[in-house]
Amino acid sequence: MSALRKMLNLPEKERTGGENKAASPQDYAASEPPADGGKGPSDPGWNAVGWAEESESTGRSFARRAGRVVIWSVIGLAAFTGVRTWVFPAKPPAVAPQVDVQAEALRNDVPVDEAQQVAARFARSYLSWSSEAPQLRARDLARDLPKGADPKMGWNGEGLQLVSQTIAGKVTQAEGKRARVLVDVRVSYTVQSDGKDASVSQWLGLEVPVAESGGRILVTGQPALVGMPTATDYKIPDIADTDAAMSNSTRQTVKDFLTAWAVGGEDQAAAPGSRIAPLGGGVQLDSLDSWAVDVGSGDKRTGTATVRWKLAGAQLQQTYLFTLTQVSANTGSRWQVSQVTATS
After folding, report:
1. Which residue ranges make up each domain of the chain?
2. E strand or H helix at 309, and its extent?
3. How far apart are CA 333 and CA 114, in angstroms?
4. Which residue from 71, 81, 160, 274 has the least number of CB within 10 angstroms?
5. CATH number of the domain located at residue range(s) 244-342 in this protein
6. What is residue 30's predicted lDDT score, i.e. its pLDDT?
7. Which controlled-vocabulary keywords does the entry list (predicted)?
8. Confidence check: pLDDT of 42 > 60
9. Angstrom distance (rounded) from CA 278 to CA 260
10. What is the pLDDT of residues 257-313, one digit of tens each?
11. Looking at residue 43, what DSSP letter applies?
12. pLDDT for the residue 237
């Protein structure tokens, strides 16, 4: 403790009455010689048990002062940081708000259904024109254009073209509640062929720019004709093996159903509980060109039928996928049609 007191420049601790106090050389010098004639201060061996002053070296003095500075610096720094945290408590780190990227994008998107509806309607008006009534086209286009826009939209006021059908497709979203809608348009017009007028119909692709403004969808610029999809490769699935005996025994069942289906009497030929909508008027069975039941087992079997219909003075051949169900009765069981779909 005395070394620490020296480094901190603290006074020596006072001795209490109960503590033993060693005599200093001065105490011995002031005392009288012992009465028994013992040795006194003049005796060379008398001071052997006393303390002698020793001068402090320069290195020790510097170390003591340096240590004192370090200790007081640590105490001061601890006191300062403690007080600072009292006055200015540490703030918890700010938590970054979680951003839902998908939800944010949806807020900036144009509503798809409404965009398709407006684009399809606009495409019908845009590609319909008649030089004899140009004001009709302008009136229809103005409904979906911003105020002040030119309703001619690039048309020179000549010719005649009609639109029979529009199909809105892909919607490509852009920033700022804008989008482009692809619309398939079926147009009809008249051409000269061998000196006679002939009606021609074809599909055109039209991309319509739209935007959301004032709570509704508007067409923001001129649409543009674009290309239509072209044919691509497709591998037809392997044909299942045919159950020849089953095909022969059920061929007449399928033919009877097709005959009744064409005239709206399919309920009499279909399996109980089946829901097969009638074909409608104007269709008549011409022939069942082929019928093949797939190899299988159980009370449900599938087969493929190639059918030739008479329709509007023409013959139209089509292929169907049939599902047959075995129906049991008191007199036995038979196969009936329970489902008819296009082939996949």
Report:
1. 1-13+58-90, 106-226, 244-342
2. strand 300-311
3. 53
4. 81
5. 3.10.450.540
6. 46
7. Membrane, Transmembrane, Transmembrane helix
8. no
9. 9
10. 999 998 887 666 788 888 888 887 889 999 999 999 999 999 999 999 999 999 999
11. S
12. 83
Q: In this model, does residue 28 exceed pLDDT 50?
A: no
Distance CA 1, CA 243 (A): 110
The counts of H helices and E strands in the chain are 7, 10
Domains 106-226 and 244-342 are alike in CATH topology: yes
Query: Residue written as tokens 């603290």?
Result: 10
* CA gap 253, 110 in Å, rounded: 53
State phi, psi for 182 to the nearest 5 degrees. -90, 125
At 261, which amino acid appears?
A: W
> Residue 168 has which token pair?
């809105």
Distance CA 66, CA 78 (A): 18
At 29 the pLDDT is 46
As its CATH architecture, domain 106-226 has Roll (3.10)
DSSP designation for 55? P
Q: Give the ranges where 112-243 is alpha helix by DSSP (H).
A: 112-126, 134-142
Q: State how far the alpha carbon of 286 is from the alpha carbons of 212, 222, 259, in Å.
A: 53, 49, 9
Question: CB neighbours (10 Å) of residue 88?
Answer: 8
The number of CA neighbours under 13 Å toward the Cβ of 127 is: 28
Instruction: Write out the DSSP string of 256-306.
Output: HHHHHHHTT-GGGTBPTT-------TTEEEEEEEEEEEBS--SSEEEEEEE
317-325 contacts: CB < 8 A, separation 24 or more? 317/289, 319/343, 322/254, 324/250, 324/253, 324/293, 324/300, 325/271, 325/274, 325/299, 325/300
Full-model pTM: 0.60
